[in-house]
C-alpha cells in the first residue's frame, strides 16, 4: 500500500470534512424520495419524440454544485437533479475538445484522431468531416437543431462550422475561451481577435453583453419562435465557468465573505449560470415544451483548482486522468422519466448521449456503426442495469512519456510510459503520467494557495508509471493496488492493447500564421480555402507560407490597439 505524507492536515481534520468514510459511495446516503403516484400512470412510450435540451458547463468542478455539499449556491441545479435522476457514476473527459467531440460523435477520441490535447485556434484541424454528428442524426429524425455557446471543435474552414455539422442555427464562440463581455480571445501575445458568431457571420453587435445571460436569452428566443408540436434539440454549451473569472458584481457580492478572491469570483459565475438554467427551464414551461422534454445536464471536465474550482474529495483536477479530472456532474430531468427522484450508480460516459438521444428521438442508428456509446435510457429512466461495463478514458501517444515507464513494466505487451487510462468494472488502471495528483480541498481561505493546502501527496509516486484502483471501494484513489494485483493490471493492459489496435493516427497539425485574426477583419474565423484544405489534408503538413498574406498598415495599427486593450483588460480582471 502506498505511503502517504500528511502536510498540514491531521486525520481528525480530514474526518471533520466528512469525506474519508467509504459510506460516501453508498446509495443509501442519497435515499430515493417516494415516487409520486401520478408517475405510475405515465404511458410506457412517448406519444411523440421529446424535446431535448442538453446543457454543458465548462470547467465546473465535481464539488461545485449544492447537492455535492458545496458552499456555492445552485438552487436550480439542485432542484432539477432532485426531481430527476442524479448520475453519480458519470464520466467525461479531462479537457474541453475531447469531451465535446465524444458528445457530438458518440466515439472515443482515439477513433476521431483527437486523442491529444485540444484543437487550438491556429491549427488547421477540426472534428473529422466524415463523422455523422448527433445534430445531423436528429435532423434526419425531423428535429429542429440549435446550438448556443462554445464550439471548440475547429473552424479553419467553413465546412467545420456548427451550421455545417448539423445545427440549423448557432450563436456562440468558436475558440476555447473568450472574454465574457468583449468576446476577445488572445492565443498568445499580440494574436488577439473577436470571437462571437451568429451563424457563419461575426456578431459584432452583441459585444458588451455577458455571455451567460446572452446565451440563456437566445434559448428563450428560440423556444418562443418555435412550435412545441415540432421536436427541437438545443445544445447549450455555456462558456461558464471557464476563465477569465468574470461575473456581474451583484453575484460576487453574495460571496463577499469568501476570503479567496478566485473562489469568490468563480462561485459568483456558478450561481449566475444556475440562474440562467432557471430561465431556460422557465421558458420551456412558458412556451409549452416542458411536459414533453428531456433536460440533460453535464460538465465537460474537472474543475481547475488554480482558478477557483474544486473537485473535492476526488483526486486531481482538470487535465488529469484522476477521478477529479474525469468524473463529472451529471443528471437528467424530465417528466417522461419513469423512476424519478433518485440517484443512479449506473456506469455512464459522455459518448452514451449520442445513441441515447437518437434513440429517444426515434432516429436511425443502423447507418452509424462502430459507436463507442450505449443507449443508457433504460438505466436512467427505469433503473435498469447499464449496458456499459468499461470506459476507455484515453490513450495519448503524443503526451510526454513517463520517465520511469517501460515495456518491461507492462508485461511486454504495453509501454507504461504512454499516458493511458481505462476502467473495467470496478477497476481503474492508469499508465504513464496521469497528471497532477493531489487532493485539494475547496479554496476558501484568503492565503490559498499556500504551503498548507497540499492536503496529501504520494511519497512513492515519483518513480511509478502504473496505478491500479478499485474505484467502487476507493473512489478517492488512495490505495494503489498495482503491486498486489498484477493479474488485474495485466488484464486491463490487454484491454488497452485491444483499443490501441483500433486507434486512428493523431490529428494535431502545426499552427499556421494565416489563422491570425488580423487577416480576417479582426475576428477568429475560417481562413483556409478549399485548395488549401485539400493540400493540408492530403500531405498531412501545415499550409505553405507562400499563401500567407502580407500584413497591412491598418492591420498593424489594429494589432497595437488590441495589445493595449488586452493589457487594460488583464488589469481589470
> Poorly predicted ranges (pLDDT <50, ≥5 residues)?
1-45, 448-456, 538-573
How are the strands ordered across the major sheet? 10-9-6-5-11-2-12-13-3-14
Q: What is the overall silhouette?
A: globular
Distance between the termini: 45 Å
Cα radius of gyration in angstroms:
23 Å
**CATH homologous group name of the largest domain:** Alkaline Phosphatase, subunit A
Kindly name the structural category: alpha/beta
Question: Helical stretch count?
Answer: 13
Main pleated-sheet profile: 10 strands, mixed
Strand tally is 20
Number of domains: 2
* Highest-level CATH class of the largest domain: Alpha Beta
Give the proportion of residues in helices: 10-25%
The multimeric state of the shown protein is single chain
Nearest-integer average pLDDT: 86
CATH topology of the largest domain: Alkaline Phosphatase, subunit A
Protein architecture, described:
The protein is of the alpha/beta class and 573 residues long. 25% of the residues lie in helices and 15% in strands. It has two domains: 51-388, Alkaline Phosphatase, subunit A, CATH 3.40.720; 408-502, 2-Layer Sandwich (Arylsulfatase, C-terminal domain), CATH 3.30.1120.10. It has 13 helices and 20 strands. The strands form five sheets. The chain has a ten-stranded mixed beta sheet with strand order 10-9-6-5-11-2-12-13-3-14, with helices on both faces. Strands 16-17-18-20 form a four-stranded antiparallel beta sheet, covered by helices on one side. Strand 7 (184-186) and strand 8 form a beta hairpin. It is globular, with a radius of gyration of 23 Å. GO terms for molecular function: metal ion binding; sulfuric ester hydrolase activity.
Amino acid at each position: 500500500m502506498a505511503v502517504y505524507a500528511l502536510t498540514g492536515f491531521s486525520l481528525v481534520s480530514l474526518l471533520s470534512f466528512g469525506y474519508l468514510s467509504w459510506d460516501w459511495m453508498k446509495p443509501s446516503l442519497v435515499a430515493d424520495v417516494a415516487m409520486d403516484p401520478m408517475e405510475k400512470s405515465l404511458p410506457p412510450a412517448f406519444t411523440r419524440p421529446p424535446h431535448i435540451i442538453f446543457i454543458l458547463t465548462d470547467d465546473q468542478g465535481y464539488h461545485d454544485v449544492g447537492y455535492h455539499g458545496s458552499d456555492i449556491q445552485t438552487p436550480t441545479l439542485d432542484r432539477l437533479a432532485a426531481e430527476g435522476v442524479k448520475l453519480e457514476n458519470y464520466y467525461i473527459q479531462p479537457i474541453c475538445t475531447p469531451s465535446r467531440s465524444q458528445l457530438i460523435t458518440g466515439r472515443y477520441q482515439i477513433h476521431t484522431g483527437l486523442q491529444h490535447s485540444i484543437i487550438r485556434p491556429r491549427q488547421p484541424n477540426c472534428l473529422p468531416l466524415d463523422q455523422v454528428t448527433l445534430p445531423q442524426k436528429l435532423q434526419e429524425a425531423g428535429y429542429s437543431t440549435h446550438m448556443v455557446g462554445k464550439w471548440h471543435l475547429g473552424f479553419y474552414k467553413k465546412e467545420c462550422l456548427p451550421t455545417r455539422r448539423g445545427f440549423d442555427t448557432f450563436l456562440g464562440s468558436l475558440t476555447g475561451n473568450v472574454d465574457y463581455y468583449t468576446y476577445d480571445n488572445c492565443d498568445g501575445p499580440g494574436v488577439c481577435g473577436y470571437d462571437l458568431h451568429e451563424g457563419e457571420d461575426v456578431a459584432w453587435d452583441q459585444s458588451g453583453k455577458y455571455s451567460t445571460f446572452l446565451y440563456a436569452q437566445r434559448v428563450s428566443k428560440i423556444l418562443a419562435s418555435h412550435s412545441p408540436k415540432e421536436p427541437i434539440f438545443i445544445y447549450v454549451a455555456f462558456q461558464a465557468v471557464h476563465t477569465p473569472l468574470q461575473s456581474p458584481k451583484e453575484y460576487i457580492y453574495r460571496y463577499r465573505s469568501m476570503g479567496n478572491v478566485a473562489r469568490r469570483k468563480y462561485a459568483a459565475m456558478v450561481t449566475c449560470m444556475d440562474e440562467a438554467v432557471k430561465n431556460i427551464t422557465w421558458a420551456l414551461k412558458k412556451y409549452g415544451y416542458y411536459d414533453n422534454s428531456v433536460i440533460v445536464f453535464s460538465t465537460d471536465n474537472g474543475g481547475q483548482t488554480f482558478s477557483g474550482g474544486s473537485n473535492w474529495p476526488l483526486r486531481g483536477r482538470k487535465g488529469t486522468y484522476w477521478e477529479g479530472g474525469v468524473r463529472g456532474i451529471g443528471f437528467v430531468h424530465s417528466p417522461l422519466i419513469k423512476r424519478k427522484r433518485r440517484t443512479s450508480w449506473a456506469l455512464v460516459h459522455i459518448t452514451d448521449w449520442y445513441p441515447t438521444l437518437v434513440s429517444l428521438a426515434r432516429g436511425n442508428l443502423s447507418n452509424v456503426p462502430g459507436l463507442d456509446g450505449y443507449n443508457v435510457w433504460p438505466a436512467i429512466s427505469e433503473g435498469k442495469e447499464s449496458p456499459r461495463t468499461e470506459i476507455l478514458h484515453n490513450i495519448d501517444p503524443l503526451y510526454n512519456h513517463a520517465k520511469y515507464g517501460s515495456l518491461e513494466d507492462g508485461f511486454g505487451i504495453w509501454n507504461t510510459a504512454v499516458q493511458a487510462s481505462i476502467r473495467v468494472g470496478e477497476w481503474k488502471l492508469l499508465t504513464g503520467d496521469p497528471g497532477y495528483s493531489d487532493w485539494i480541498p475547496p479554496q476558501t481561505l484568503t492565503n490559498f494557495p499556500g504551503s498548507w493546502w497540499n492536503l496529501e501527496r504520494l511519497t512513492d509516486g515519483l518513480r511509478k508509471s502504473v496505478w491500479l484502483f478499485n474505484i467502487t471501494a476507493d473512489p478517492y484513489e488512495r490505495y494503489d493496488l498495482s503491486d498486489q494485483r498484477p493479474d488485474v493490471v495485466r488484464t486491463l493492459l490487454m484491454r488497452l492493447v485491444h483499443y490501441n489496435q483500433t486507434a486512428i493516427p493523431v490529428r494535431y497539425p502545426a499552427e499556421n500564421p494565416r489563422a491570425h485574426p488580423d487577416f480576417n477583419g479582426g475576428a477568429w474565423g475560417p481562413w483556409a480555402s478549399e485548395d488549401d484544405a485539400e493540400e493540408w489534408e492530403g500531405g498531412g503538413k501545415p499550409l505553405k507560407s507562400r499563401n500567407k498574406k502580407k500584413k497591412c498598415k491598418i492591420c498593424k495599427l489594429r494589432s497595437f490597439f488590441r495589445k493595449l486593450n488586452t493589457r487594460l483588460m488583464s488589469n481589470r480582471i
